[in-house]
Amino acid sequence: MATDTLKFVSTRAAKQEFTKLNRTVTEEKDMRIITKRGKPVTVLISMEKLKELIGDEKFKELLYEFYTSSILEKDVQKLISGKEKTVPLNRAKKELGW
28 and 38 in contact (C-beta within 8 Å)? Predict the structure, then answer.
């Protein structure tokens, strides 16, 4: 699943053209990554593409990377804000798959 094949659309464009976007994704059996201020926030995916990706090991690894990076990002934000002083070792190990 190469990054150069991913197709992005802004939140604004997705709102304005949702029906067309939904039809395109469904007909092409594909997906679009919806961005807000240039950052990926949502994925619109056809059921056919989802079924295909569920069996793909690289896709599973990518989902895991997104999941762990978002968890770690939240922990870093808590540390910076002073809301959380440390991340418990057993939690860190679990989230990192150790």
Answer: no
Number of domains in the chain: 2
Whole-angstrom distance, CA of residue 13 vs CA of residue 63: 25
pTM for the model: 0.53
Could you tell me if 7 and 38 lie in one domain? yes
40/31 Cα distance (integer angstroms): 13
- Alpha carbon 12 to chain centroid distance? 18
Q: Give, as one character, the DSSP assignment of residue 14.
A: H
Pairing of strands 31-36, 8-10: parallel
Q: Which residue has the tokens 């870093």?
A: 76
pLDDT in tens, 69-88: 766 677 666 767 776 666 67
Verify that 72 and 92 share a domain, yes or no: yes
Q: Are residues 44 and 60 in the same domain?
A: no
